[in-house]
Specification:
This protein is mainly beta. The chain has a single domain (about 1-115), classed as SET domain (Beta-clip-like, Beta Complex), CATH 2.170.270.10. The chain is built from one helix and eleven strands, in the order βββββαββββββ. The chain has one helix spanning about 45-55, and strands at about 1-5, 10-15, 20-25, 35-40, 40-45, 60-65, 70, 85, 90-95, 100-105, 110-115. It has a four-stranded antiparallel β-sheet. Strands 2-3-11-8 form a four-stranded mixed β-sheet, with no helix packed on it. The termini are far apart.
Length: about 140
Amino acid sequence: MSLLGGKIIYPVRLGKSAIHGSGVFAAATIPARKKIGTMGGTIVSARQANKHAKERQVIKLVELGNGKALDGSVNGNELCCMNHSCSPNSYIRVIGHEVEFYALRKIKPEEEITCSYGASYHEGKKHCGCGAENCVEFF
């Protein structure tokens, strides 16, 4: 098991989210197409990740595509609390063991930073509360 500390480039803060629980909010303007930061966490096997997903209500896991996953519940940073949106303002890029977040457009101070999870451990059974016009209702 190895730990990844992650690095946040633009200032963010955790706060109460209208989407779900706690969310990540910009503490300053984040320009379009800029890297927001890298998620921290612990690298676990895909098997461990699946077990953790079944045991937890809040899932902070990102598949790395090599039989491993990044578990943000241990040694994670604020980016582990990124909420899903069907109309996100950021996207995830996985390179090796790194999970990076980039702004799709300019993100204003105090705006919640969201991403589209794509395929998730929720297996299409989690109700989406993003409120976007194009909301898929479940992810």
